[in-house]
Predict the structure.
Amino acid sequence: MSELPDLESLRLLVDVGELGSLGRAAKAAGIAQPSASKRVARLERRLGVPLLERTPRGSTLTAEGKMVSGWAAQVLAAAEELVRAVKAVRHAGRAHLRTAASMTVAEYLMPRWLGELQRREPDVQVGLDVVNSADVAARVLAGEVELGFVEGPSVPEGLASRVVGADRLVVVVAPEHPWARRRTALGGAELAATPLVVREPGSGTRETLEVAFAGLHRAGPRLELGSNSAVKGAAQAGAAPAVLSAYAVEAEVATGRLVEIPLAGPDLARRLCAVWRRGRPLTAPAATLLAVASQRPALTEDAAGTLKCGDGRI
């Protein structure tokens, strides 16, 4: 039999010394005094020294018991420190979440999702990288972030995914642009043949547009810009028509700073997907954020519920 005593018995012994009697120590431990007496007796047999002096007035520590009690207090303190350290490690694993999101998702959807995450798990600390969809996927695959959010028609191999919403791209122009006064919807061939202000290669917006233009004669872009704000600013300045997320231009269209042009085609609907490394379970904060995004999707069309993330390459 091991000579190592159990921590409950050591705590009982320390309480006898601190509280002055076995009866008080038993009460503090929530056990009956006979049970406490048996526990101390087992400890005495294990250690081979008398620990309690038993008298008609009660049981108190012997001289040896006082020495053992002092050592026991140190053991208990070390055990408590061990538990605190393990909890800190466990909490650190749960409470830090690195995530990345494409610009449209980060600007217009993540604030609400992160607010709900903080409400559910107030101790979670989130680091958010805002990059284009291709970079989001690359960072998730590299293990730099645990959970990512992308926009576009495809998801790279090696990533698990879930649709969390849908978006659509719209064509917008400055109020002074000739298209702002047109009475017919814009066709896909005319749009493809027009130099546009567009996002940079690697963005979900750009990829969706290129897929929609497949098979059409395409003009080169008038401008390639790295953010939604820059594209909007160029369109408002009259540089050229722009193609952006409906979320990105909602305020400008509502206030008349940009004019949305009706489209006869092509289909510019797209999925918004959460992505994570396939075969790697999500930590609790990441799973919660995924649940929040899935339960509160930013759906712009009824058909969003039928969309599925693909397995192609971004």
Remarks:
- The longest helix spans residues 63-95.
- Residues 218 and 289 are 39 Å apart (CA to CA).
